[in-house]
Design brief:
Helix content is about 45%, strand content about 15%. With about 220 residues, the chain is of the alpha+beta class. The longest helix has 23 residues.
């Protein structure tokens, strides 16, 4: 039988538990229920959170759900869909800020710095890690998004992003939603053009990596 959160003892309600013990004590289901705020016709926010997590397989699956598909789900609608997507986006942006100032010394460093901006995406996304003279990441900039099977690496936009943010060095990364990190011929051609453009602009190009799930490969 469904028990609405308002009918639960105060010490068992997610909001009160969070205030008393911190967000760390809450389960994923409880945290999601707080984002949803309420359920629908006989279904509590906690039950709705459980249903969404089960439907998408995991928190990671829900994190990449598109707002328009969430909005059509019974009990969610556009308001709750927007809140869920916004919460995950805030988390991604906070992670990127935390990673800024990281020094890029190798392809591993580039892949690690890029992964949180690219993990779980179902469309290809190209990002630039803009660095200072000491190769410290100053900013992560999205320069392009493509279809599921096409990578778009805009050379001019990449260089402009670095110059616009007063970068002295930069690395490039994009994801392959297919799960295969093998660079395409187009990836290699774009990388060669960017290397030439960076030299002309007096910028240090630290490399280009393809991220796919937990794997990555350098583009050479």
């Amino acid at each position: 039988m469904t028990v609405l959160m308002a009918a639960m003892p105060p010490h068992e309600r997610p909001r009160e538990r969070l205030i008393a013990g911190g967000a760390e004590v809450l389960t994923e289901r409880e945290l999601l229920a707080l984002v949803l705020r309420n359920g629908t016709h006989g279904v509590s926010a906690l039950d709705l959170a459980s249903e969404l997590l089960a439907e998408y397989g995991s928190l990671g699956g829900l994190a990449v759900a598109r707002p328009e598909e969430l909005a059509t789900r019974k009990g969610v609608g556009p308001v709750k869909a927007a809140a869920v997507v916004a919460a995950f986006q805030l988390s991604r942006r906070a992670a990127l800020v935390a990673e800024e100032s990281e020094v890029l010394r190798s392809g591993d460093d580039v892949a690690r710095a890029a992964r949180r901006a690219l993990a779980g995406l179902r469309r290809e996304r190209v990002i630039v890690l803009v660095c200072d003279a000491a190769n410290r990441v100053k900013r992560t900039v999205v320069v392009a998004e493509g279809s599921l099977d096409q990578s778009l690496v805009p050379v001019r936009e990449v260089l402009n992003a670095v110059l616009r943010h007063d970068g002295r060095a930069f690395a490039l990364a994009h994801n392959h939603p297919s799960g295969d990190p093998e660079p395409s011929d187009a990836d290699r051609r774009a990388t060669a053009k960017i290397a030439v453009g960076a030299k002309t602009a007096g910028l240090r190009f630290l490399g280009h990596v393809v991220v796919a799930d937990d794997d990555w490969q350098a583009v050479s």
